[in-house]
Specification:
The structure holds two protein chains of two kinds. Chain A is mostly beta strands. Chain A contains no helices and eleven strands. Chain B is about 0% helix and about 60% strand. Classes of the chains: A mainly beta, B mainly beta.
Amino acid sequence: DAGITQSPRHKVTETGTPVTLRCHQTENHRYMYWYRQDPGHGLRLIHYSYGVKDTDKGEVSDGYSVSRSKTEDFLLTLESATSSQTSVYFCAITGTVNTEAFFGQGTRLTVV
Amino acid sequence: KNEVEQSPQNLTAQEGEFITINCSYSVGISALHWLQQHPGGGIVSLFMLSSGKKKHGRLIATINIQEKHSSLHITASHPRDSAVYICAVVSGGGADGLTFGKGTHLIIQP
């Protein structure tokens, strides 16, 4: 299995609080992605990174920010959590754009 | 934006049956992934292909670039194959990640 871990695996938080999810990889892959998975929508891209300090927005980036200060870590921050951000969040990595993708185990986030 | 459609959305079959899941997309791609997700579980890559056909055990994936269509076949299906199967495509330069279908929920009954 590819070395990719997400933390925490589960979190319940209150509306308006900031939340940070962490994705850690040991594969030295260049590309890292944050997706959210919702019933009826499938997986959608939030933000991605193509190198240290190089990030860009995805399809559903409003309300989220990211940082990548080291190759191995990609952080997703919900600046002020809302109930619409209740979802399952997946991190993914690839070495190059046309190679196999590896996914973390997911983080189930509930905003109450 | 690439639109990825999967069919069927739900499929229930008996153990041993031959299963086909279809994926079509609207814009040319550089690669297509088939992924598997068990209930409450993570997402596992089954295949990545850009042309032709790949086989791994009882799973076969094919792609027709001209018709913008791919199929995932499961031979001699088994209850442990019960999962959600997701098609995802790499468009353009590909650095901006995958575009996903909504998945096919497969149940194999003993």
